[in-house]
Amino acid sequence: PRPAPRADETLAQIPPPRPPMAAAASTMLESLPAPLLRALRLKTKQQELLLRVSALALIYVLAFAVRLFSVLRYESMIHEFDPYFNYRTTLYLTEHGYSEFWNWFDHESWYPLGRVVGGTLFPGLMVTAALLHRLLRALSLAVHIREVCVLTAPFFAANTTLVAYAFGREIWDSGAGLVAAALIAVCPGYISRSVAGSYDNEGVAIFALLLTFYLFVRAVNTGSLAWSLAAAFGYFYMVSAWGGYVFIINLLPLYVLVLLVTGRYSQRLYVAYNCTYVLGMLLGMQIRFVGFQHVQSGEHMAAMGVFFLLQVFFFLDWVKYMLNDVKLFKSFLRITLTCVISVGTLALGIGTASGYISPWTGRFYSLLDPTYAKDHIPIIASVSEHQPTAWSSFMFDFHILLFLFPAGLYFCFKRLSDATIFIVMYGLTSMYFAGVMVRLILVAAPAVCLISAIAVSATIKNLTTLIRSKSKSPQTTGKTTGSKAAAKGAVDQPLPFQHNVAVALLLGAFYLLSRYAIHCTWVTSEAYSSPSIVLSARGHNGGRVIFDDYREAYYWLRQNTPTDAKIMSWWDYGYQITAMGNRTVIVDNNTWNNTHIATVGRAMSSYEDEAYEIMQSLDVNYVLVVFGGVTGYSSDDINKFLWMVRIGGGVFPVIKEPDYLVNGEYRVDKGASPKMLNCLMYKLCYYRFGELTTEYGKPPGYDRVRGVEIGNKDIKLEYLEEAFTTSNWIVRIYKVKPPKNRS
Amino acid sequence: MATPLRLAALLLVLVAAFASAARADLVVSRADRKVDLTSHIVRVLTSLKVENAGSEPVSKVLLAFPNIQAKNLAAIRAFGTEGKVKGLSSVLPIEVVEPSGVPPELTFFSASLHKPLQKGKILHLDVLTVFTHFLQPFPEEITQADSQLVVFQDSSHYLSPYPVKVQTLSIRLPGGRVESYTKYGNTKLVDSELKYGPYEDVPPFSYNPIIVHFENNNPFAVAKELIREIEISHWGNVQITEHYNIVHGGARLKGEFSRLDYQSRPYARGVSSFRHLIARLPARAHSIYYRDEIGNISTSHLWSDSKKTQLEIEPRFPLFGGWQTTFTIGYGLPLQDFVFSADGKRFLNITFGSPMEEILIEKLIVKVVLPEGSKDIDVSAPFPTNQWQEVKYSHLDIAGRPVLVLEKPDVIPEHNLHFQVYYKFNNISLLIEPMMLITGFFLLFVACIAYMHTDMSISKNSPSYLAKLQWDEVQATVQQIQGIFHQCLAVHDKLETSLHDLSRTGDAKSCKAARKAADAQFKELAKELKPLLLSVQSSPQSYQIWPKLDDLVAKERELQDKLMARHATVVDSVEKKQRGQDIENRISSQQQKIAALRQEVESLLEYLSEI
């Protein structure tokens, strides 16, 4: 509203039509050469593009940079267990070339069985890293393959943000895409598997997974063959990278089925699914490890069934169109359906009965039924990342996304389309799987981010339009306002404090989002950036104490044992021993042979003389155990021991779990069962530990992990001798003595 | 232990045979030998007083060693002065010779004198010999608790082709237990110093074996191989990378290694092991790292002052006898401290050996990596080495960097001398790599621009392609139209300002002129606008925009009219000298409409620009 004019002045009250700032700016602009300025001034669209591109670029950099905590805090090194195998194979690939790698028989693991590495791994990750390495070499950048391996996961995580943006734009709008990119860039659920150094299949697989889904949704939206083809190649990359491709090959048919049931069948869907499925299947067969599973394994049958169903659907559609008679068509439909269903069931029945179609694997069962593994396959249940997810880890990994997820689902249902149905299904199924297994939070992370991004973007957009229209409304109260504004005004009327509430809500949203960012950074730096091979703790004076015992032991093995020495340890350390120690191991993290692992478990849980026979039969030269009693490192072999007993007992009934327990309680102190106190694992861990004082004021032989004084302090070894113990006692290596001369 | 005895017997037999060959006209009037056995590198300093008893001047002095010693001989240096009193000594060149009639069990070196020794004159000759692998551990395997015992074998008589009048031998031991030593007449052990002699009038080639068995727990650090890479960057850095493969060369560990014993009593249990090595780096060394094949090693300490940088590195595990480890240390040095230029050539002047203390290197390979484009490479080393050239490819190299490789076996701290590598290098070559990068990125951007501006569609007459072309055209035209409207708006603003001026100055005339000018401009712009609008209208792709555009044109026309009308009213009123209040009243309704119209026009323009 204009100020009331005053009487004593002339003419001065003509109000400038625009706010003074703008006028000043315009006069300033006028003083400059006009055409030049006009050329320089960006149109709104260009401004938006510039903003979008720079935001994306920043997100890209952020996604990469936030994953470098571990490199800055420790060093450029490979983390955990499995990545060491991947690193070793990549090294082999770069040194020997692809065909050698493809035909590689690794005699350093699973002694005496060995492992056909080329045929039992997903080569996607290694090939990717090797290609990146070759590319950099071609650009004459002399980087070591280790650096490439360390940075592969962050690089692909950064690429994932771009895919998330495109996906978000496809299912909602570019705003949602941007938010999705930003959310996924720092989402802890994803960061946990993609920090620098965590050189694992998941690092590239999540990128491939999201890419495949995006391309498929795009293909469904456009009905274009080109996008379907791209989706098939995305699927191929996923198959080559990770066993999680089974999720795709089951989600896509489920999605198609849902679309069919909800009456959303279209020509576009037909083209997209058929092309992607057929080509993807053929491409997937090129991976040796997968082979003919697409046509032979029970887990892949759903996709094939839906493929045939689509053909039938299409055929019926065509017949309906040609017949143009409802009655005739109905009878035809009845006949066709009966035929098809009976043929399908027959084929499946014969296939299963004859063994051509293999039944579902244990892992697959354990996903559908979380209690399955616990009862039937202890080796799967024993892996810590296969445990059911606790609420706290959901909160830890998703933070506010956990609350935004339902909100996003609401928005998706409000604006239902082929694309939103897909993301809803992806979100719901992956959330279920994330609940079954901790590690599958990773698969759920992109879906949760995308759905939450829809919630955030839609909410903020609504709020900002409210604020904008409100601030404009005083000027547009005139009669000439457009119909749109009028309609909005009509809605606006009943809510008096709308503007303030909108501002408050907006601030709240920004507060939540900033909390999310802070939480993610904190989680990344505190929880997910530890290489787990170098341990660190706070010293008495607040300084950082580094326990580098693992590498100390592995390097000792590498340098000071015969090159053909065979090392026996629990399977967890197999990959690290072969990669860092360069020695042959009996079992490793590729847990393909349960019996072999059970044999090791049996040796560890037997008395020394029995164990000696087993070790002799396996040609074992050294035994490696991990022991945390001195430092208080809790994930040591004594704490894992019950699983060795269980897995060993699963194959060799001589080993009985109750023998190691006292009244169902697992203990290592004086009250422990005699079998426990004299089994090989106990002896190797606590050999001469009884003489050591670990904590002031405690008796010697005080185990700092279990918090008890050990029960057997006088351990004598007859068939083994201590070969090496690391400076903090975390890794202990024993040498198996040669058999005594017969007298 | 049988070898020296047999050798001695053989020598005695042979003495007579080649006494004549040894040119007995030189006589050693005094020989004092000092053997240092404190470390695993054995240093023997022999001070000789040589007298020419013959008639002819002598220009060479022969030094004899048994082959078993000679094969372990890492360095031999001789310093000589002539005259009764010892003065400034000069280094004498030494070479291996094979005089006729000598037994094959002996190796002879000859020190050439700078000027022949005249009859009756006396020469003071100091010979420093350094032996490796001289001390044999005995027993060869010990437990963790044992200390390391070694055996030293030599002769109590100085082995010489010349008769020796007076001689002594003193052996410095590291100070521990002495298990046994060969006792002859005048032998005494005082405070870890073992003395033999003096012996008088010993004939040539006299060999009197002695064996000393003693405790030596000093680190027997032996580098099986050391590769030192010295990389010169003319951006200001000399980067040194040293790859060590170190082994404990002493008695091997047998039985258990108990960490408990080692932790609780490190000096009693584990006395023969060593857990750290000390490297003395140049003073301005920076960016020091210490790692191995599986990563960084966090156990190292660094002290530095203005004279030196001392790096104490601790391998991942203590080294017991027979244990080995490999690691890499690297550091940067300022270029100006080590690379100089003279006579149009540059040269690197740096020490040859390892910075580690008391380390024996069985095979040392020094690689000098010169910058890409270096020419005329030349080396001058103080001792003979195997040399060859390689090429190394590093970041952004095309031709590769020339690498000069020097190889030398059995390198000891005495070899830690400076050597020089001369080469020619043009500073312009420095800029090649940055220029390459700049060009690369430039080409990348050019390619991007070219890609954005080229038409990559395959079929040029498909309907969608044509539609796209038309749409582009419409967009271009709409952009022009927008430009015109912006000009219109600018003219509106001018009118406003003229009204402002009027309120300030009351100059109605100029105000009128402004209106006239604006009118003319409006007409001109309308003329420009017309064909553009027509073209948009005729295009089939404009069905979405056209209504908006139409609306915009109408609104703008109305706005123009309203503005002109108001302008006219105000100017009129001013000319009629009406009161401000009245003018205000008259135009207030117009004012509101104008503001509303203006807003609408602007929002329409915004809408258009968002297409």
UniProtKB/TrEMBL annotation, chain A:
Location of the STT3/PglB/AglB core domain: 567-624
Signal peptide: none
Gene3D superfamilies: 3.40.50.12610
GO molecular function, one term: dolichyl-diphosphooligosaccharide-protein glycotransferase activity
InterPro entries associated with the record: Oligo_trans_STT3 (IPR003674), STT3-PglB_core (IPR048999), STT3_N (IPR048307)
Residues that span the membrane, as ranges: 49-69, 116-136, 148-168, 174-191, 203-236, 242-262, 269-289, 301-319, 331-357, 394-412, 419-435
Keywords, ordered alphabetically: Endoplasmic reticulum, Glycoprotein, Glycosyltransferase, Magnesium, Manganese, Membrane, Metal-binding, Transferase, Transmembrane, Transmembrane helix
Cofactor(s) required, per the database record: Mg(2+); Mn(2+)
Subcellular location: Endoplasmic reticulum membrane
Pfam families, A to Z: STT3, STT3-PglB_core
Top-level taxonomic group: Eukaryota
EC top class, as a word: transferase
Enzymatic reactions: a di-trans,poly-cis-dolichyl diphosphooligosaccharide + L-asparaginyl-[protein] = N(4)-(oligosaccharide-(1->4)-N-acetyl-beta-D-glucosaminyl-(1->4)-N-acetyl-beta-D-glucosaminyl)-L-asparaginyl-[protein] + a di-trans,poly-cis-dolichyl diphosphate + H(+)
Topology versus the membrane: Multi-pass membrane protein
Pathway the protein contributes to: Protein modification; protein glycosylation
Entry EC number(s): 2.4.99.18
Chain ranges of the Oligosaccharyl transferase STT3 N-terminal domain: 54-451
A cellular component term, taken from the record's GO annotations: endoplasmic reticulum membrane
Similarity comment: Belongs to the STT3 family.
Quaternary structure note: Component of the oligosaccharyltransferase (OST) complex.
Protein name: dolichyl-diphosphooligosaccharide--protein glycotransferase
From TrEMBL, chain B:
Membrane topology: Single-pass type I membrane protein
Protein name: Dolichyl-diphosphooligosaccharide--protein glycosyltransferase subunit 1
Swiss-Prot/TrEMBL GO biological process terms: protein N-linked glycosylation via asparagine
Native organism: Aegilops tauschii subsp. strangulata
Functional summary from the UniProt entry: Subunit of the oligosaccharyl transferase (OST) complex that catalyzes the initial transfer of a defined glycan (Glc(3)Man(9)GlcNAc(2) in eukaryotes) from the lipid carrier dolichol-pyrophosphate to an asparagine residue within an Asn-X-Ser/Thr consensus motif in nascent polypeptide chains, the first step in protein N-glycosylation. N-glycosylation occurs cotranslationally and the complex associates with the Sec61 complex at the channel-forming translocon complex that mediates protein translocation across the endoplasmic reticulum (ER). All subunits are required for a maximal enzyme activity.
Pathway named in the protein's UniProt entry: Protein modification; protein glycosylation
Listed Pfam families: Ribophorin_I
Coiled coil: 580-607
Signal peptide range in chain numbering: 1-24
Subcellular location: Endoplasmic reticulum membrane
Keywords annotated in UniProt: Coiled coil, Endoplasmic reticulum, Membrane, Signal, Transmembrane, Transmembrane helix
Assembly information from the UniProt record: Component of the oligosaccharyltransferase (OST) complex.
InterPro entries: Ribophorin_I
Family from the record: Belongs to the OST1 family.
Assigned GO CC terms: oligosaccharyltransferase complex
Spans traversing the lipid bilayer: 430-452
